[in-house]
Amino acid sequence: MTGEDNILKLVDAEESESGEYHLQDQVGFILRRAQQRHVAIFSSYISDLTPPQFAALAKLRDVGGDTSQNQLGALVAMDAATVKGVIDRLRARGLVELSRHDGDRRRLLVSLTVEGRRTVDALIPLATRITEETLSPLSPKEVATFLKLLARLA
User: Fold this and answer.
1) For the whole model, what pTM was predicted?
2) Least crowded by CB within 10 Å, which of 21, 78, 117, 137?
3) Helix, coil or strand: residue 142
4) Closest by alpha carbon to 110, among 138, 85, 147?
5) Sign of the Cα pseudo-torsion (126, 132, 134, 137, in order)
6) What string of pLDDT tens digits covers the 154 residues of the chain?
7) What CATH fold (topology level) applies to the domain 49-132?
8) CA–CA dist 27, 10 (Å, integer)
9) What residue ranges do the domains of the chain occupy?
């Protein structure tokens, strides 16, 4: 079934007069299935990091320096407990390091190590392929519409 077929199926479900509830037609169910597909594609290209770990590394690369643990969590849409676990695992692998903020000793700053930078730089081309493969059932016009609509939901 193509992405267009799924969209048409969803539209048909919305137009249904019966008002019956069908799980497979619900937005949460469809989003979860799409997420599962994306994670499977991600894992086929990048097997030694989880998507949240990669997101943290990629965002640290983007910000280009130290950022607080809390700020990093906000930037990658992770709660404090989740980002702490992600950072702890990345730190154990030598990909990030923690330091104390000069002005506020309670504040932890996270930065990429040399190995972390090398790792994320090497993975960026794979991440691009993952995105392309995830979106491959859609036409370029559908991709633009889909991403625009998803951004409105987020």
Assistant:
1) 0.81
2) 21
3) helix
4) 85
5) negative
6) 565 555 656 555 555 557 899 999 999 999 999 999 999 999 999 999 999 999 999 999 999 878 999 999 999 999 999 999 999 999 999 999 998 867 666 778 999 999 999 999 999 999 999 999 999 999 999 999 999 999 999 8
7) Arc Repressor Mutant, subunit A (1.10.10)
8) 9
9) 1-45, 49-132
Tell me, what DSSP letter sits at residue 25?
G
CA separation for the pair 77, 59 (Å, rounded): 11
d(CA 149, CA 10): 15
Contacts of 56 (CB under 8 A, 6+ apart): 72, 76, 78, 83, 86, 87, 90, 96, 110
DSSP symbols for 49-83: S-HHHHHHHHHHHHHTS-EEHHHHHHHTT--HHHH
Which of 57, 31, 34, 5 has the alpha carbon at shortest distance from 133?
Answer: 34
Distance between CA atoms of residues 12 and 4, nearest Å: 12
